[in-house]
Amino acid sequence: AQSVTQPDIHITVSEGASLELRCNYSYGATPYLFWYVQSPGQGLQLLLKYFSGDTLVQGIKGFEAEFKRSQSSFNLRKPSVHWSDAAEYFCAVGADTGFQKLVFGTGTRLLVSP
Amino acid sequence: DAGVTQSPTHLIKTRGQQVTLRCSPKSGHDTVSWYQQALGQGPQFIFQYYEEEERQRGNFPDRFSGHQFPNYSSELNVNALLLGDSALYLCASSQTSGTYNEQFFGPGTRLTVL
């Protein structure tokens, strides 16, 4: 069964600094990987996804993520954080079963300091 | 396109009661998945409906049931509510096809059980 680990519960970054959120997955085949963002009291918004091909994927709001099969990782990055990026970030893996079930990590809460 | 819509936004129930949550999928989507997100946790897959049938189910008791209508909208029913059922319930829609398709999430229904 697939699983996702987000080792950082909270991360604080200064506005304008770079950001990297870690995600490790466990899945036997080539995974479908996603990063979602959730603002307080809101649903989930897809930032980016990896299905196949180029291992560096670009997303919305200036985010990117790199798929590293050897490390079973899919870390999310942003070169310069804005105060509006403060939110909860979830990494998820989808199984290639045709049923499209998503398994989420426990999330990383990003705090942005002035 | 209104995207995925859910109703109601908030709901307060007491233990032992029953509740019904509703979801309308994004236009063109035929598959609806339900997730439970407890406070401070990532979403957990409850079940998925396609062609008016439950196609896959997560590790949730039979108190959780659902339905999909011919117009692809869906309901989530929870019987004999427990305090632990308090959570944000997210609906996600997608289109079943030969390749993996991303899920679009609604804003959620916040259920509080007293």
Describe how the helices and strands are arranged.
The complex is a heterodimer of chains A (114) and B (114).
Chain A: E1 3-5, E2 10-14, E3 19-21, E4 24-26, E5 32-38, E6 45-50, E7 56-58, E8 64-68, E9 73-78, E10 87-94, E11 102-104, E12 108-113
Parallel strand pairs in A: 2-12
Antiparallel strand pairs in A: 1-4, 3-9, 5-6, 5-10, 7-8, 8-9, 10-11, 10-12
Chain B: E1 5-7, E2 10-13, E3 19-24, E4 31-37, E5 44-50, E6 53-57, E7 64-68, E8 74-78, E9 87-94, E10 104-105, E11 109-113
Parallel strand pairs in B: 2-11
Antiparallel strand pairs in B: 1-3, 3-8, 4-5, 4-9, 5-6, 7-8, 9-10, 9-11
Q: Your description of this structure?
A:
With 114 residues, chain A is mainly beta. Chain A is built from no helices and twelve strands. In chain A, the strands form three sheets. In chain A, strands 2, 5, 6, 10, 11 and 12 form a six-stranded mixed β-sheet that branches. In chain A, strands 3-9-8-7 form a four-stranded antiparallel β-sheet, with no helix packed on it. In chain A, strands 1-4 form a two-stranded antiparallel ribbon. Chain A is globular, with a radius of gyration of 14 Å. Chain A starts with a strand and ends with a strand. The relative contact order of chain A is 0.33. The model of chain A has no long low-confidence stretch (mean pLDDT 91). In chain B, the strands form two sheets. In chain B, strands 2, 4, 5, 6, 9, 10 and 11 form a seven-stranded mixed β-sheet that branches. In chain B, strands 1-3-8-7 form a four-stranded antiparallel β-sheet, with no helix packed on it. The mean pLDDT of chain B is 93. At the A-B interface, strand 5, strand 6, strand 10 and strand 11 of A face strand 4, strand 5, strand 9 and strand 10 of B.
